[in-house]
Structure formats: structure tokens, C-alpha cells
Amino acid sequence: MATVIAAAVMSLDGFIADLDDGVGPMFDWYNNGPVTVYGSDPDRPFNVSQVSADYINETWPKVAACVIGRTLFDITNGWNGVPAAGEHVFVVTHSVPTDWPFPDAPFTFVNGIEEAIGQAKEYAGDRVVAVTAGNLTGQALAAGLVDEISCDLVPVVLGTGKRFFGEYTGATILLDNPRVIEGDRVTHLHYRLSKG
After folding, report:
1. Bacterial bifunctional deaminase-reductase C-terminal domain location, by residue (predicted)?
2. Could you write out the three-class secondary structure of the chain?
3. I want to staple 70 with a disulfide (CB 3.0 to 4.6 A). Which of 23, 28, 76, 93 is the partner?
4. Of the options 3.90.180.10, 3.30.360.10, 3.40.430.10, 3.40.1190.10, the CATH number for the domain spanning 3-192
5. CA–CA separation, 163 vs 14, rounded Å?
């Protein structure tokens, strides 16, 4: 059974982007080191510290599928048809794009978070499904669909913006102790949702 991980880079005050979807200095750590790593796209290198490279090379290859929202899809233009991580992307949307120039790309447009995660888990088998943070994560948490949370915490205070957990107002959720990896200008935190 696939593991569902909600994941994103986050500011110290809990935001994944500003109100205009800009990330400002939050992604600086992706290009502040001497070690080159790649996600799924061989034309999109990241240059990070050795510690972050080790973490990325351990975790990113386990991702089989990603679940993203329509906003991220539009902002990135679906990464021009090449998933940023994993092999297949499931886009939660009520409106399937009809003019996207990459119709054969491994992207599936799905109506609803539960259906998207269900299809992504079926695709992933025993590997990982990554869910982008924001409103999708809040919806997935409320539906009990998240197993773990992965947060790349950067030393930035945005003050306002789009929250890691979106507008989540559900029940209190306990997490197990984190795995903590200190990179350069980023701390990688990984939590499992407590089953006890």
C-alpha cells in the first residue's frame, strides 16, 4: 500500500507562498550548494548542500506519483509536461484544460482530492504519493488520507501568505517525533501521523 506524504517548503511562520503565489527566498536553498541533484526532469538541476543532497537522493526516488492542485499546475504550466517528482501527476481540478500543449504527458486530471489520492495510490503500489501542501493537504488531512508530513523549513518569516495546511480547521492531529536533518538554510523535518 502506498504511503501518502504531504510535502512542501515552508517558512518559519507556516506559509508555502505569499498571497501572490511567490516563494521569494524560500527556494534559495535549492541553489546554494556544491552538489547537483535532480528530481524527475534531467533538465532541471538543483545545487544543494551535501546534507540536503543526501536527503533528496534518499527520499525523492521513492515518489511514484504526485497530487497537485490546479493553481500549482497553472503556475508551473505543468512543468511543461515533465513531473517535478515521480512518474505521474494527478491534478485536482473541476475544469480540465483543453489547450494544454502536452496531451501525452503523464498527467491525469481528477475531480476531487479523494479520487485523486485513490488513483495515485493505485498507480504508486507500495511506493510514495506526494501531496502538495496548501488547501489540498488540508482536505486530505480532514479526509484521513495523509500518512506522513515532510516539511523543508526555511529560516524566513513571510508574515502572510498561503498556509502549509490551507484552511484546515479539523480535529487535532498528533504526530510522532520528527526526523530532523539540518541542511544549509533549510531544516528537513519528517513526521509520521501518530497512530496511538
Report:
1. 3-168
2. CCEEEEEEEEECCCEEECCCCCCHHHHHHHECCCEEEECCCCCCEEEECHHHHHHHHHHHHHEEEEEEEHHHHHHHHHHHHCCCCCCEEEEECCCCCCCCCCCCCCEEEECCHHHHHHHHHHHHCCCEEEEECCHHHHHHHHCCCCCEEEEEEECCCCCCCEECCCCCCCCCCCECCCEEEECCCCEEEEEEECCC
3. 93
4. 3.40.430.10
5. 6
